[in-house]
Design a protein that fits this description.
Its EC number is 7.1.1.2. This protein has 455 residues and is an all-alpha fold. It is built from 18 helices and two strands. Strands 1-2 form a two-stranded antiparallel ribbon. The longest helix is centred in the C-terminal third of the chain and has 32 residues.
């Protein structure tokens, strides 16, 4: 794992020292090398592995590391059109910020103790803020950046204090070896305050205000990384903490959090039906999916945690692809309005088919991996409390409705004469979409690659 971190740092140095005409080729080459090295260093389905320097991987963190290593070069490739009018210096800074985010992501997913996890969790804040505020498309990007920082920092303070308290009572805050006997009588308020930081990052309904703003204003790479990877940091941290706080969570918090997340996911699905901004719709879709994922994991069953991990990985690939396709419209029309961009099937030859594939994946249509995760999660929720089954089912159905609404709004109706879409997708954009289709195909054929244990 140290080798992977050194590779990321070496890539940053090489990009900074590259002449202007070599920035883009070097960025693509070194970022594409990272997923290859990751697969070599961390075999799939590897169990708990102590590597070095307090960095550890297991069957929960390994798929998330793969997701991060795979989508970082894809996000750089997707930014080619956005960066074409930037100076070489700005291109260097943009790409270096993405590599810095990857560096902290690897630390977060491999940390062996909660302090290192917290540092990696917070380390992604500043680079992401710069991506939103410096390369956002509109003036509202400053407000979006402030919301992002405010929510993250305010929610992280109780987590930091809680971790210091845990260290004082147990003298060991290892993720895997912390003595949970010290935490049996822990005040549930303290446990919940520690979890708020991750619930904000996921985010669940009512803590999601920052997310649509950040997504709408961020450049395409920022939206891809935010939706596909950074939100999964919240899910990963939440999964680790509920295992640690099992007794107070199971006795007090779970009975409140599960129905709250279910109804929140349902309400967010209904909000999606009212959206006309394409990126905003995809952002609210993420809130809905993540709310159901948190509700499932909160049932504290191995079955639910496996389903939650599948949803996180599948949603990461699908949401990133949706933002990529949405960006192809925005680069040509300078608008994200669903009805202005309608009937693009007349101009784009293959794009409607791509929309259909990823819309079906977003709604959880078998045999796509999202369907497997949702079936497992819904089953776990129903087994926990049958009264939660109906709102969960309605929420899942509503997810399918707004996914179809998104597809039909863009690919149906008559083409507007005043629309200025005049060019099909180029080779770079086709390559970006292909790199999203490949992991979906792999997960359809081998879904066991992202399950922490047999389900």
């Amino acid at each position: 794992m140290i080798t992977l971190l050194f590779l990321i740092l070496s890539s940053i140095i090489i990009i900074l020292l590259s002449p202007g005409n070599r920035v883009w080729p070097n960025s693509i080459f070194w970022s594409s090398l990272i997923p290859i090295i990751t697969i070599i260093l961390i075999p799939p389905l590897s169990s708990l592995t102590n590597i070095s320097w307090g960095l550890t991987t297991d069957t929960i963190s390994t798929p998330l590391i793969y997701l991060s290593a795979w989508l970082i070069p894809v996000s750089i490739l997707a930014s080619g059109g956005h960066l074409s009018n930037n100076s070489f210096l700005n291109q260097k800074i943009f790409i270096v910020l993405i590599f810095i985010i990857l560096f902290f992501l690897v630390i977060t997913f491999t940390a062996n103790n909660f302090i290192a996890l917290f540092l990696g969790f917070e380390g992604t804040l500043i680079p992401t803020l710069f991506l939103i505020t410096n390369w956002g498309a509109q003036q509202e990007r400053i407000e979006a950046g402030l919301f992002f920082v405010f929510y993250t920092l305010i929610s992280s303070l109780p987590l930091f204090i809680g971790l210091l308290y845990l260290n004082s009572i147990s003298y060991n805050i290892s993720i895997f070896y912390l003595k949970t006997s010290f935490l049996g009588n822990l005040n549930p308020t303290i446990a919940f305050c520690c979890m708020v930081a991750f619930l904000v990052k996921v985010p669940i309904f009512s803590l999601h205000i920052w997310l649509p703003k950040a997504h709408v204003e961020a450049p395409v790479a920022g939206s891809m990384i935010l939706a596909a990877i950074l939100l999964k940091m919240g899910g990963y941290g939440f999964t680790r903490l509920i295992v640690l706080f099992f007794d107070p969570f199971n006795n007090h918090i779970s009975n409140i959090l599960v129905p709250f997340c279910i109804w929140g996911g349902l309400l967010t699905s209904l909000i999606c039906l009212t959206q006309t901004d394409l990126k905003s719709l995809i952002a609210y879709s993420s809130v809905s999916h993540m709310s159901f994922m948190v509700a499932g994991i909160s049932t504290l069953s191995n079955w639910a945690i496996a389903g939650g991990l599948i949803i996180m990985i599948a949603h990461g690939v699908v949401s990133s692809a949706l933002f990529c396709i949405a960006n192809t419209f925005y680069e040509r029309t300078s608008t994200r309005n669903l009805f202005i961009n309608r009937s693009t099937k007349i101009i784009f030859a293959i794009t409607p088919s791509l929309w259909l594939i990823f819309a079906c994946a977003n709604m959880g249509l078998p045999p796509l991996p999202n369907a497997i995760g949702e079936i497992i999660t819904v089953t776990a929720i129903a087994a926990n409390n049958i009264f939660n089954y109906l709102p969960t089912l309605i929420g899942i159905v509503t997810t399918g409705i707004f996914s179809l609404f998104m597809f039909l709004a863009i690919n149906s109706g008559n083409h507007q004469k005043w629309s200025n879409i005049s060019s099909n997708m180029n080779e770079r954009e086709h390559n970006v979409i292909a790199t999203h289709l490949l992991p979906l195909i792999v997960l359809i054929l081998s879904p066991n690659l992202i399950t922490p244990w047999p389900v």
